Protein backbone atom coordinates (compact mmCIF):
# COMPACT_ATOMS: atom_id res chain seq x y z
CA UNK A 1 0.00 0.00 0.00
CA UNK A 2 1.58 3.25 -1.16
CA UNK A 3 0.28 6.68 -0.17
CA UNK A 4 1.51 10.23 -0.53
CA UNK A 5 0.31 12.56 2.19
CA UNK A 6 0.71 16.02 3.64
CA UNK A 7 2.13 16.19 7.14
CA UNK A 8 -1.41 16.57 8.51
CA UNK A 9 -2.67 13.46 6.72
CA UNK A 10 -4.39 14.69 3.54
CA UNK A 11 -4.12 13.03 0.14
CA UNK A 12 -4.59 16.29 -1.77
CA UNK A 13 -5.47 19.93 -1.27
CA UNK A 14 -7.62 22.39 -3.16
CA UNK A 15 -5.59 24.73 -5.36
CA UNK A 16 -2.29 22.92 -4.79
CA UNK A 17 -0.48 21.25 -7.74
CA UNK A 18 0.23 17.53 -7.86
CA UNK A 19 2.74 16.37 -5.27
CA UNK A 20 2.06 19.73 -3.60
CA UNK A 21 4.54 21.17 -6.10
CA UNK A 22 7.41 19.48 -4.28
CA UNK A 23 8.36 16.64 -6.60
CA UNK A 24 12.12 16.65 -7.09
CA UNK A 25 14.82 14.59 -8.85
CA UNK A 26 15.58 11.99 -6.16
CA UNK A 27 11.93 11.28 -5.52
CA UNK A 28 11.05 11.08 -9.22
CA UNK A 29 14.01 8.75 -9.85
CA UNK A 30 12.80 6.50 -7.02
CA UNK A 31 9.30 6.46 -8.53
CA UNK A 32 10.79 5.45 -11.86
CA UNK A 33 12.74 2.58 -10.25
CA UNK A 34 9.60 1.47 -8.39
CA UNK A 35 7.75 1.42 -11.72
CA UNK A 36 10.28 -1.09 -13.05
CA UNK A 37 9.52 -3.65 -10.31
CA UNK A 38 6.66 -5.18 -12.30
CA UNK A 39 3.93 -4.44 -9.79
CA UNK A 40 0.31 -5.00 -10.66
CA UNK A 41 -1.40 -1.81 -9.56
CA UNK A 42 -4.72 -2.04 -7.75
CA UNK A 43 -7.12 0.88 -8.02
CA UNK A 44 -10.74 1.87 -7.59
CA UNK A 45 -13.05 3.54 -10.10
CA UNK A 46 -12.40 7.15 -9.06
CA UNK A 47 -8.63 6.75 -9.21
CA UNK A 48 -8.96 4.92 -12.53
CA UNK A 49 -10.96 7.79 -14.02
CA UNK A 50 -8.54 10.41 -12.71
CA UNK A 51 -5.28 8.64 -13.57
CA UNK A 52 -6.34 7.36 -17.01
CA UNK A 53 -7.44 10.89 -17.96
CA UNK A 54 -4.15 12.34 -16.68
CA UNK A 55 -2.18 9.71 -18.62
CA UNK A 56 -4.07 10.54 -21.82
CA UNK A 57 -3.55 14.27 -21.24
CA UNK A 58 0.16 13.74 -20.55
CA UNK A 59 0.53 12.10 -23.97
CA UNK A 60 -0.53 15.29 -25.77
CA UNK A 61 1.97 17.90 -27.00
CA UNK A 62 0.62 20.72 -24.83
CA UNK A 63 -0.32 18.68 -21.76
CA UNK A 64 0.77 21.23 -19.18
CA UNK A 65 2.80 18.55 -17.36
CA UNK A 66 6.56 18.76 -16.99
CA UNK A 67 8.55 16.31 -19.10
CA UNK A 68 9.23 14.14 -16.04
CA UNK A 69 5.60 14.18 -14.88
CA UNK A 70 4.39 13.32 -18.39
CA UNK A 71 6.82 10.40 -18.66
CA UNK A 72 5.71 9.08 -15.27
CA UNK A 73 2.03 9.30 -16.18
CA UNK A 74 2.31 7.83 -19.68
CA UNK A 75 4.60 5.10 -18.33
CA UNK A 76 1.61 3.77 -16.40
CA UNK A 77 0.07 2.69 -19.72
CA UNK A 78 2.46 -0.26 -19.88
CA UNK A 79 1.96 -1.65 -16.39
CA UNK A 80 -0.80 -4.11 -15.46
CA UNK A 81 -3.68 -2.57 -13.55
CA UNK A 82 -6.65 -4.19 -11.82
CA UNK A 83 -9.61 -1.86 -11.40
CA UNK A 84 -12.28 -2.65 -8.80
CA UNK A 85 -15.62 -1.11 -9.71
CA UNK A 86 -19.33 -1.84 -9.98
CA UNK A 87 -19.92 1.31 -12.06
CA UNK A 88 -17.33 0.99 -14.84
CA UNK A 89 -17.93 -1.23 -17.86
CA UNK A 90 -15.57 -3.10 -20.17
CA UNK A 91 -13.68 -2.47 -22.29
CA UNK A 92 -11.59 -0.10 -20.23
CA UNK A 93 -9.77 2.50 -22.33
CA UNK A 94 -6.52 2.65 -20.35
CA UNK A 95 -4.12 0.01 -21.74
CA UNK A 96 -3.39 -3.03 -19.58
CA UNK A 97 -6.39 -2.46 -17.30
CA UNK A 98 -8.57 -5.35 -16.15
CA UNK A 99 -11.96 -4.75 -14.53
CA UNK A 100 -13.10 -6.72 -11.47
CA UNK A 101 -16.73 -6.12 -10.52
CA UNK A 102 -16.92 -8.32 -7.43
CA UNK A 103 -15.70 -7.84 -3.88
CA UNK A 104 -12.21 -6.30 -3.93
CA UNK A 105 -11.12 -7.90 -0.64
CA UNK A 106 -12.04 -11.39 -1.88
CA UNK A 107 -10.41 -10.77 -5.27
CA UNK A 108 -7.14 -9.50 -3.77
CA UNK A 109 -7.05 -12.37 -1.26
CA UNK A 110 -7.37 -14.79 -4.20
CA UNK A 111 -4.69 -12.92 -6.17
CA UNK A 112 -2.33 -13.26 -3.21
CA UNK A 113 -3.13 -16.98 -2.82
CA UNK A 114 -2.49 -17.51 -6.54
CA UNK A 115 0.94 -15.91 -6.33
CA UNK A 116 0.25 -13.23 -8.94
CA UNK A 117 3.47 -11.38 -8.10
CA UNK A 118 3.93 -8.07 -6.34
CA UNK A 119 0.94 -5.74 -6.10
CA UNK A 120 0.59 -2.16 -4.96
CA UNK A 121 -2.25 0.27 -4.59
CA UNK A 122 -2.30 3.39 -6.73
CA UNK A 123 -4.09 6.06 -4.71
CA UNK A 124 -7.55 4.60 -4.11
CA UNK A 125 -8.10 5.53 -0.48
CA UNK A 126 -11.27 3.46 0.05
CA UNK A 127 -9.75 0.37 -1.54
CA UNK A 128 -6.56 0.78 0.49
CA UNK A 129 -8.56 1.15 3.70
CA UNK A 130 -10.56 -2.03 2.94
CA UNK A 131 -7.46 -4.06 2.12
CA UNK A 132 -5.69 -2.88 5.28
CA UNK A 133 -8.71 -3.64 7.49
CA UNK A 134 -8.87 -7.15 5.98
CA UNK A 135 -5.22 -7.81 6.85
CA UNK A 136 -4.14 -8.03 3.21
CA UNK A 137 -1.45 -5.33 3.32
CA UNK A 138 2.11 -6.62 3.76
CA UNK A 139 3.81 -3.21 3.56
CA UNK A 140 2.41 0.21 4.38
CA UNK A 141 4.50 2.91 2.68
CA UNK A 142 4.02 6.64 3.08
CA UNK A 143 5.79 9.51 1.43
CA UNK A 144 5.18 12.52 3.65
CA UNK A 145 5.36 15.93 1.99
CA UNK A 146 6.40 18.79 4.29
CA UNK A 147 3.23 20.85 4.05
CA UNK A 148 0.23 21.38 6.30
CA UNK A 149 -2.99 21.83 4.36
CA UNK A 150 -5.39 22.34 7.24
CA UNK A 151 -7.52 24.91 5.40
CA UNK A 152 -7.42 23.43 1.89
CA UNK A 153 -6.76 19.73 2.57
CA UNK A 154 -9.04 17.16 0.93
CA UNK A 155 -9.41 13.42 1.42
CA UNK A 156 -8.28 12.73 4.97
CA UNK A 157 -6.42 9.47 4.72
CA UNK A 158 -6.88 7.87 8.12
CA UNK A 159 -10.59 8.49 8.72
CA UNK A 160 -12.38 5.15 9.02
CA UNK A 161 -9.20 3.13 9.57
CA UNK A 162 -9.01 0.37 12.16
CA UNK A 163 -6.39 0.61 14.88
CA UNK A 164 -3.09 -0.55 13.40
CA UNK A 165 0.32 -1.25 14.93
CA UNK A 166 3.19 -0.35 12.61
CA UNK A 167 6.67 -1.89 12.71
CA UNK A 168 9.13 0.31 10.84
CA UNK A 169 11.24 -1.60 8.34
CA UNK A 170 12.65 1.28 6.32
CA UNK A 171 12.92 5.02 5.90
CA UNK A 172 14.52 7.47 3.53
CA UNK A 173 14.66 11.19 2.86
CA UNK A 174 14.32 12.39 -0.74
CA UNK A 175 15.78 15.69 -1.88
CA UNK A 176 16.30 16.80 1.72
CA UNK A 177 12.57 17.26 2.34
CA UNK A 178 10.30 14.30 1.48
CA UNK A 179 10.20 11.45 3.98
CA UNK A 180 9.53 7.83 2.97
CA UNK A 181 8.38 5.61 5.85
CA UNK A 182 7.85 1.88 5.34
CA UNK A 183 6.05 -0.32 7.87
CA UNK A 184 4.73 -3.82 8.36
CA UNK A 185 1.14 -3.27 9.55
CA UNK A 186 -0.79 -5.35 12.08
CA UNK A 187 -4.49 -4.65 12.47
CA UNK A 188 -5.44 -4.57 16.15
CA UNK A 189 -8.74 -5.82 17.57
CA UNK A 190 -8.22 -3.59 20.62
CA UNK A 191 -5.53 -1.30 22.03
CA UNK A 192 -2.43 -3.16 23.28
CA UNK A 193 -2.73 -4.39 26.85
CA UNK A 194 -6.55 -4.39 26.89
CA UNK A 195 -9.03 -7.22 26.46
CA UNK A 196 -11.17 -7.38 23.30
CA UNK A 197 -14.69 -6.04 23.78
In short:
This protein has 197 residues and is of the alpha/beta class. InterPro entries: DHFR-like_dom_sf, RibDG_C.
Which descriptors apply to this entry?
single chain, 197 residues, alpha/beta, four-stranded mixed β-sheet, four-stranded parallel β-sheet, 10 strands
- What's the overall geometry? globular
Largest sheet: 4 strands, mixed
Question: For the terminal residues, how far apart are their CA atoms?
Answer: 29 Å
* Number of continuous helical runs: 5
Helix and strand content put the structural class at alpha/beta
SS strand fraction:
25-35%
Helix coverage percent: 25-40%
Rg on CA atoms, Å: 17 Å
Order of helices and strands: EEHEHHEEHEHEEEE
Write down how many β-strands occur, each being a DSSP E stretch of 2 or more residues: 10
Uncertain residue ranges = none
Placed side by side, the strands forming the largest sheet appear as: 1-7-10-9
Averaging pLDDT over every residue, what do you get? 91
Domain Bacterial bifunctional deaminase-reductase C-terminal: 2-179
Protein name: Dihydrofolate reductase
InterPro entries: DHFR-like_dom_sf, RibDG_C
Model description:
The chain is α/β, with parallel strands linked by helices and 197 residues long. The protein contains five helices and ten strands. The strands form three sheets. The chain has a four-stranded mixed sheet. The protein has a four-stranded parallel sheet with strand order 5-4-3-6. A two-stranded antiparallel ribbon has the order 2-8. The model has no long low-confidence stretch (mean pLDDT 91).
Amino acid sequence: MDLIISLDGYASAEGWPGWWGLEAPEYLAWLEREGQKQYTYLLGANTYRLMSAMSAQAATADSGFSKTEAASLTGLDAVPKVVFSSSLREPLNWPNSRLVGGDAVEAVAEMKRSGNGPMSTLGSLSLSRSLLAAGLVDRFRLVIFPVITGRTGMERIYDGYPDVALEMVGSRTFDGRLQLLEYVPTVLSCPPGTAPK
